[in-house]
Write a structure and sequence with these properties.
Elements (H helix, E strand, L loop, with lengths): L4 H9 L8 E7 L5 E7 L8 E5 L9 H12 L3 E6 L20 H13 L5 E6 L1 H13 L7 E7 L5 H7 L6 H19 L8 H6 L3 H12 L5 H8 L12 E6 L8 H11 L4 E6 L8 E2 L7 E2 H15 L9
Parallel strand pairs: 3-4, 3-5, 5-6, 6-7, 7-8
Antiparallel strand pairs: 1-2, 2-4, 9-10
Helix pairs in contact: 2-11, 8-9
Length: about 325
Amino acid sequence: MPGPHIPTLWGKLVRRPAPLPTRTVRVETPDGDFLDLVRLDAAGLGAPHLLLLHGLEGTPRSHYAQGILGEARRRGWNATLLVFRSCGAEMNRLRRSYHSGETGDLQFVFDHIAREHPRSPLLLAGVSLGANVLLKWLGERGRAVPARLRGAAAVSTPFDLARSVRHIDRGFARLYQWHFLRTLRGKAVAKMARFPDLADPVRLRAARTLYEFDDAVTAPVHGFRGADDYYARSSSLAFLETIAAPTLLLSAVDDPFLPAEVLDDVRRAARVNPALNLEFVARGGHVGFVSGRLPWRPFYYAEWRLGEFFTARLSSPADPIHSR
């Protein structure tokens, strides 16, 4: 599919994934909040279990989430989609929400699934913002990740948040920025009805870019000095060298959310870390990767590639983390 924008928009505007037999489970968090988990029970106990993290303002209805869960079902794996705080059907209880560097909820849910499925090999996948969260968590844990984690995959990662938000504020990409800001601002206004001091209402109304929104809301709510501090401390690029779990990094060079030169920095990090498996294709847009001969019979490469990578990891007899 040509160009960066057609594949980026295809999933949202055209794709209609087949319904899946999922169920939603609510778990209480240690800080008095809750998380919704969308569960796909495709196999019995002991089958591989995939934990999926969605992107910025994603929901259980996001086309890529449905596609990846569908791929897990086809391969006979159970799966869980972690719905980030404020992204479910009900607003979360606390002032805080979610952001690109928040890894505590991932740790909590990973441990929860590991206890629920003590005999299952575990897999991790993240898309866009969720991919950044995933890679940061892997880098923070290093070799301390459990041996049951057989592999991880990150799709369309915004490895450098500062350069990403500048890139999305240019040309046609501003359409994506407007879409995100519309829902982010709405959620912030709704939260301010309960927490009036959550943010400066003047700055919130004036925010016209993701940088301005993060500087006015995301950063102060979550303990950062400002957007620059938030981006510097949360970008996954700084955590790549310490990742120990075998990890697929799938991105498109023409991703409209990220300047291509950031991928050069990722390549340099991968040269000193054999755990990173890079696949940077020329075309695919952002979470697009749509191909095929006929428009009415598209092939969604990213979810298939994740399935192939994980299948290879599951068939590997060696402990990939603790044997090095």
